[in-house]
Amino acid sequence: MTMTTSSATTSSATASGATTSAKTASAESAATSPVRVLIAEDEAHLGTILEQFLLARGFQVSIVRDGRTALERLRSEAFDVALLDVVMPELDGLEVLRQVREEPLPPEIIVITGNGTIETAIAALKLGAYDFLSKPYRMAEIEVLVRRAWEKRMLARDNVVLRSQLDRQAPEPVFLTQFAPLLAVRHMMTKVAASNSPVLITGESGTGKDLVARLLHAEGSRPAGPFIAINCAGLAESRLELELFGVEKGAYPGADQRRLGLFELAAGGTLYLDNIGDLDLKLQGKLLRALETGSFFRVGGTQQVAVDVRVLASTTRDLSRMVQAETFRDDLLHRINTIRIALPPLRDRATDIALLARHFLALLAPRGEQGRSALRLSDDAVAALERYRWPGNVRELRNVMERAALLATHDTVHAGDLPLGTEVGAAARPTPVQGATAIAEPATASAPATAEVLSLGELEKRHIHDVLERTNWHQGRAADLLGISPKTLYRKIREYGFARPGGRSS
Fold first, then answer.
1. What's the confidence (pLDDT) of residue 426?
2. Integer distance in angstroms from the first to the last C-alpha of the chain?
3. Residue 449's domain is classified under what CATH number?
4. Sheet containing 7-9: order of strands
5. Where residue 318 sits, what CATH number does that domain have?
6. What is the arithmetic mean of pLDDT over 65-93?
7. Is residue 222 part of a domain?
8. Do 426 and 323 share a structural domain?
9. What is the pLDDT of residues 106-117, one digit of tens each?
């Protein structure tokens, strides 16, 4: 879309003269405020008092009574600040804090306890807590801490510009392939890069959609401009609207200054909307208007803002089916689908596996590092890599080669050096085919030739458990290898009833 860098003033609607009660006003303020607070307090009367206090000051508040529920809510919803009591049923506040800090976008955590000791405070701060309070506490102190914690979250967003500047200084992304259909895609990318038209990039997780977006930017007409990316699946609707379009001073309680959104931060460059299929329908409408008119309003603003930015989008979903299901707007799909680039899964481009593996080895373990020669791949390693089905695609291949580069004890990487677990052997386990109901488990050295027939669910369960074991139960790394989000992995862990070594439930 083509936009100018000017702003135009529009007429604002007249305010209603109707009078509302204080309670209604507080509720409306909380509903529109992007500042979302979770209270985890097992003492019902204290939790209720704290909830009412924060609601009255315009925060959007949710409350839970135990640590397990708090962890589930924090992993499934986008909160800005969480108030965690240390002593709670199911899980204590410190354990909730430890697990939440592993998430990609954790909220700021304020830990509260009635048995405050210096040891507990130090433990909480070491685990990443924003601050620590002991009961009894003053309500005014709570309010100040919540607002400061939220401001810290907002400052973190401002680092997007700095990261964009660093990205432009990084080596140019490399698109490696000898797969004929992908060579045709690469040729098309060269032709469309200079255009300002929107591009929709589709493919499974880990197939290289982010790489394609960065190449389109680097080879386009505005490579010196910022490249700003946002994952539309990682934020709640209210938060995502704020991130994309910015906010005006005074738009809600705590908004004490104007903050620019990503559309403005990407001015003169590219805005990349990853996982656009996860956008809420309401926000889809606002995005469509921005794409069609070249302008938008900040949250709480009356001044129309126009910027010059190219928009790229990607998705793992079938947006056409979503249109039929009325979960994605048909007009928005037409707007972003001007040019479409479809990326195949790695299992369909076996000719590229060895090429990419050697590239990652050279990148991750260059010649002369730690006094050793460049690593080579043995024939058996290449064969094992080509038998594997790569559910996590190129991202998983890079992770595998990174581990092989770190753990290799010789100049040559053999099949036994590859962290592929039971997925690679004399007969590699195939990736479950969509729509199938059952599949035979291949025979192994420890299993009889007449292997049992396993459901897709059981295969998935075993595969996820194997990956968790290989990563020492680090859910972030396991999710990357599996090619799924940490949120989805956590749901699967709960669904299959997995337990960490030592008997602790995950």
1. 32
2. 46
3. 1.10.10.60
4. 7-9, 303-306, 295-297
5. 3.40.50.300
6. 86
7. yes
8. no
9. 789 998 877 667
Which residues, 6 or more positions from 117, have their beta carbon under 8 angstroms from its beta carbon?
Answer: none
Higher-pLDDT residue of 167 and 470 is: 470
The whole-angstrom separation of Cα 418 and Cα 395 is 15
Distance, in Å, from the CA atom of 440 to the CA atom of 453, rounded to the nearest integer, reads 5
Q: Which residues contact 121 (CB under 8 A, 6 or more apart)?
A: 111, 132
Residues 326 and 363 placed together within one structural domain of the fold: no
CATH number at residue 408: 1.10.8.60
Q: State the Cα–Cα distance between residues 94 and 215, nearest whole angstrom.
A: 43
Can you read off the two tokens belonging to residue 156? 């973190």
Q: Please give the structure tokens belonging to residue 245.
A: 């379009």
Report if residue 199 sits inside a domain: yes
CATH of the domain at 98: 3.40.50.2300
Same domain, 339 and 349: no
Q: Which residues have CB under 8 Å from 17's CB, separation 6+?
A: none
- Let me know whether 180 and 327 are in one domain: yes
Written as one string, the DSSP assignment of 22-84 is HHHHHHHHHHH-S-EEEEE-SSHHHHHHHHHHHHHTT-EEEEESSHHHHHHHHHHS--SEEEE
Q: Could you tell me the two tokens for 158?
A: 């401002």
- Work out the angle between the directed axes of helices 237-245 and 281-293 (0-180°, nearest 10): 20
Q: Rounded to an integer, what distance in angstroms lies between the CA atom of residue 361 and that of residue 363?
A: 5
Same domain, yes or no: 195 and 308: yes
Say if residue 403 is in the same domain as residue 460: no
Q: Which has more confidence, 291 or 472? A: 291
Q: What is the extent of the structural domain holding 296? A: 171-344
Total of domains in the chain: 4
What is the token pair recorded at 444? 């192994």
| Other beta carbons within 10 Å of 31 | 11
| Domain match, 299 and 245 both | yes
311, HSE (Cβ side, Cα atoms, 13 Å)? 23
- pLDDT (tens digit, 9 = 90+) per residue, 411-430? 888 888 888 854 443 333 33
Distance CA 170, CA 430 (A): 37
